[in-house]
Amino acid sequence: MDDYKCSNDDMLERILQDPDSMPRVMQLEYLKRITDNFSDERLLGEGGFGKVYEYKPQPHLSPPSHPEHTHPMRDLFPSPNAHGHDPLFKILNKWRNRSAEALSSVDCQHIRSCLEIGKCCIKSTRNERPTTREIITKLSLESIDCSLDSEEGLLRKKTKRICDTPPENQEEEIIITQPCDIAQAPSVHIDVHVVLLHSQVLFLKQVRQHIIEDTEGLIGICGPVGVGKTLLLKAINNSFETGNSLIPSSLKRGHPPFDFIIYVTALEDCSVQSIQSEIITRLQMQDHGDSITTQATRISKYLQDKSFLVLLDGLHCNLNLAAVGLPPLGNQGQLKRKVVITTRSRSLCDQMLVNRAINVPGLKMNEALQLFQECIGNNGLYSEPCIGTLAKDLVEQLRALPSDLIRIGSAMRGKQEPGQWQNIVAVAKELMHIKDQEASSLTEGIVITKLKQCLQNLRGRRNDVNHEIEFGKREGKVATNQINNWLASVDANISVGMVICESEQNELNWDLSVIAAGMLRRLQECLSGQPSVVTVEALPPSVQEIPCSSTEQQPSRDKIFGEAMEYIKHSSVGVIGIWGLGGVGKTHLLTKINNAFLGDSLFDYVVFITASKEGSVEKIQDEIGKKLKLKWDEDDDVKSRANNIFKSLKTRKFLILLDDVWNRIDLEAVGIPYPLGRSKVFLTTRSKTVCGQMDVTKEINIARLPDDEAWQLFQDKVGQGTLSSSPRIEALAKELVEEMKGLPLALITVGRAMYGKSNLKQWESAIHYMKQSCCDGDDQDLHMENDVFRRLKFSYDSLRNETLRQCFLTCSLWPEDQGILTGDLIRCWIGLGLVDEFDIHGSYRKAHSLIGELTAACLLDICHTGFHNGGYINRRGHFTHQEMPNEVGVKMHDVIRDMAIWISCGCSNNKDKSVVRAGVGANLSIHAIPWSRAECISLMFNEIKELHPFTGSTNLKRLYLQQNSLDERIFGAIQSFTELTYLDLSDNRIKEIPEELFALVNLEHLDLSCNEELTTVPKRLRELTKLKFLYLAGTSIERIPKEVISCLTELQVIELITSPLYTKNNYTYKIIQELCTLTNLKAVDIAIEGDDGYESLRKVAAGIPIRDLVIARLRLEETNKLYLAVDTLTGDIAGRTLNELHVIECAMEQIIVGDKLGKPFHTLIVLVLLALNELTNIIMWEGTSSSQALFPRLTHLKVCFCPKLQHLSWASYLPCLEFLSVDFCGAMKQICMGTGQESSKTFPCLKYLILYNNEELASLCGSDVTFPCLEELEIVGCRKLKRLPFTMQSLPHKLTRLNIYPWDNLEWEDEGVKSFLERLCVVYLGFR
């Protein structure tokens, strides 16, 4: 450490005492040490670049002696001793002691003039410092230039003489700036007056390494204005000076990497001639005024046998380097020919065909904060109570650009008023935004003049418009929304423009040539963009405000609810209608009415039905039939069903709640008894006209929320934490609420979208979006597009990328109000290429993440699908692969779905692009479908039996026909759809695949699953070579021809688990062999049978990514054991890909879980053991640590028809097990034995425990086993079960559903446990 200090002291004292020395860049820590941390005692004064401090020489060094000479300089200047520590006189002292050759009196006069000007330039008061024009006048530059030209030889000689040997000891981060002889050294020193920060030094080293080591010749350095490109290029120039510490040891003196280093500053025109002139000057060649071509030849000839580095700074247009005369760049044998350019534009690097483009990074935030603090001169700046936070905000706005930080930091020195800082921060936000967008070649003076003129014109235009608005008010007119928005924009831009113009004398010294040009463009756009219509006739209020007399959260809604209940309970009115805008809360109100009759005996039946847009008599009949559990044949017509409903209701008092009615529905044709008498029909609709069509005798208009209620609802959704994050956000939030016009659905959706957003720009952007995208409309005319969709589209547009938006739009293809199975939705996304990760599990993880984002944005809702986990597991062969738990799916709100369809059709600009007629049933009109114009058609869930052939041309890409009653004739109807890439025909009645299918040569996704009568696959299927996804699960296919699968080389996913699983097939071995040849496979679902199939699986399928596997009818006569381990199935890949494993009808006596390697099933979710008649025990491989390690993600375990199995103790510690079902295991007396371990770790995640018909079951488990997460418990037909394993200390407090039969067989040790369980809903559902 002492050596380090001594080295720096030596070097600094030589610099200060040697008159021939030039300034150097020193390390900051060293400068702090020698100035006592910049103490006031060492402060001498303040100059143009900052404060000046005294340095006292150390005693161990003495200044070098310089013999006294009589010289004219000594007569010109007085002795410095009388002037104390004035820095100017330190410079004079140096000149007095110089030992250079005799200078003429003219030289001395010039030097004296320069020193006098310099003394004025370092005065602390700005107004006392001379301007550039004054300096030019003072120096009389014309004569000086002449004298310099006349003494060119002398100056060159003097430069050569004063070249000195560099110091021996240098620190790594000090850049040497000693001048060198042009004739000997490769570069000319360029002064750098600032200390490079750490990140800049690292960048400098990186670029320098590329210059030396890269074989290519052209390097581009790009970055925004002020990031420090010029500073870094100068440092690069200086870094090649001999003796610089940044130069590797192999390139020290005697071995320079370049013969010449030429630094050129590009002029505005960037002309070849100007660059040639700079290079000729640097090479000391004579400029004969030759043509560009001749000059290029001279330069090229001179440099052809030289190594050179050209540093070209500030290039802003394409430059032909060959035309300049530079020889071919790159390493040519021992020669190195390199060019480095700096530019603001990355595209210019592309135009110049640079070999390596490097972006200059902005300063790190900590460096920016430190630099700004040093420029301010206040080490405690950021802890200042009034301005500390504002200073940090200003640094953040300046984007950590060094030039702006230094300039503005110096200007703000000594300013303590918060108002001054707030103004600067506000201006910086706007001007930095402009500066990022604009770069103008106009000179500052011209653009400022034009800006002032444009400001004047815009003020005049604004005054004229305001006068016209004021005149229009007297005639009952109002300003249009467009003109209001225009005026707001004009006011904002005029304010900023005035700030820019005033900055001509502003000490901030902004880069006005760039900023003013950007502002000029904005003002010109305002002038040209004035709307032609200024005022329009004012409309009467579209919504009447409802008085609020209650203190409830939404008193207007409570008032409407009370009015509705009064009509229902005490009025003779039969049909009541509520009408209002979509999303205003009609469904919520109807649900509240429905729930109000829970436990009320006023009506015998309260039936809630969602009619939806495609509502019909048949649909209402079906819904009523389901609610009342009425039975009729599928062939019954409307009239016979109506009679059935009539008979059921005629003696009953009922309330029919019809939600979302769009057209007239004949209620008498449905079967509703008329006259209604004491019964009621209550409907909601978006149209007042529908109320008349439905014979409504009393209508209620549900209006938008009043302002105060809208604000309260928005607060609830956006959160107080968000609103309190900044005082300004609450004001912006109120402005945003005003734009949503009190629409609850918009308030909820946008409120949740803005949750947690504390950036003011995000709020301002949201307000701008609402103002630009919305216009008022008449409620009765149902301007859904303007009033709802465009407002709700904000959440859609806020989704983070186009993939997420397309995933959202796809959800609208399913029927209205229907839950969507997660597996079906993800399969669709994967088939469309919206989700495409490296492996199938990655794709599913990504899809689940996207679903989470859509639900978080309130564009999807989580719902129950009605699909039961047990049903899927028990009948796996009847289904395609599903995600667990499949009871939970997603659903779209009907207004959100309408909006999605509207967006898919180009926001009404291309209504035929996407056609969705899903779930409309008898109302479907096939002939009305625009087959020739549509790109996507969804007709799923319609019970369609036939489609007529279409023979014209079409652009149809996607066709969804699942869940209909179509047979093989469908292929003839669609064979002309040759552009089709996605075809879903699952769940139909197709028995064979005809030849017409193979005309669809562009198919990538083909789903024929769940066509249970489909038994064969034709050989021509091999012709669909673009297929990526082939789904044949749930069919009865018994044979797949040879070389069909192997020809589908693009195949990624194939499902081959057929129904029923017990059907013999003879193609397993061949299929496995062909699957092994496919290189793009990501997932295979397959069933194998018998010992031969099992052996082929083990030996051949090692590389197949099997996702779902069914192993059936193994005999295993030699061992009577099945080894359930990764390596015994399909090799190591099974541990990474297997998702479901079903073992069915096998004859083993034992299942050995794991092996000596102990590799885990990382992805196994479902394990099913079905009809294993000889199985007595499931044990862990000796040495295996636990089931936790082998099955880290197993969530569903099903054991059924295993009559000899004793227990499942190994399952009690599965870390993720949620579903456990044990059925018809006659020998099982206890589910799991006592563990003897910590009870809190048993069944840590189990939610569903289902036990059916286990005749010998006497106990669930020992008392040390707990169920901390149990939600549902079903025990049916286990008659020997007397006690449950619960105590008051281990009660399952999350239990919500309990079904035990027979309940009376249970015995209780603690009545408190019995009392706890009896409070739950105890029902008997019978066998599943």
UniProtKB/TrEMBL annotation:
Any matching Pfam family: NB-ARC
Tagged with keyword Nucleotide-binding: yes
Entry-linked InterPro entries: AAA+_ATPase (IPR003593), Apaf_helical (IPR042197), At4g27190-like_LRR (IPR057135), Leu-rich_rpt (IPR001611), Leu-rich_rpt_typical-subtyp (IPR003591), LRR_dom_sf (IPR032675), LRR_R13L4/SHOC2-like (IPR055414), NB-ARC (IPR002182)
GO molecular function, one term: ADP binding
Keyword terms: ATP-binding, Leucine-rich repeat, Nucleotide-binding, Plant defense, Repeat
The keyword Nucleotidyltransferase is assigned to this record: no
AAA+ ATPase domain segment(s): 215-364, 572-716
Gene Ontology BP, a term: plant-type hypersensitive response
Family: Belongs to the disease resistance NB-LRR family.
PANTHER family: AAA+ ATPASE DOMAIN-CONTAINING PROTEIN (PTHR33463:SF207), NB-ARC DOMAIN-CONTAINING PROTEIN-RELATED (PTHR33463)
Protein name: AAA+ ATPase domain-containing protein
Phylogenetic lineage: Eukaryota, Viridiplantae, Streptophyta, Embryophyta, Tracheophyta
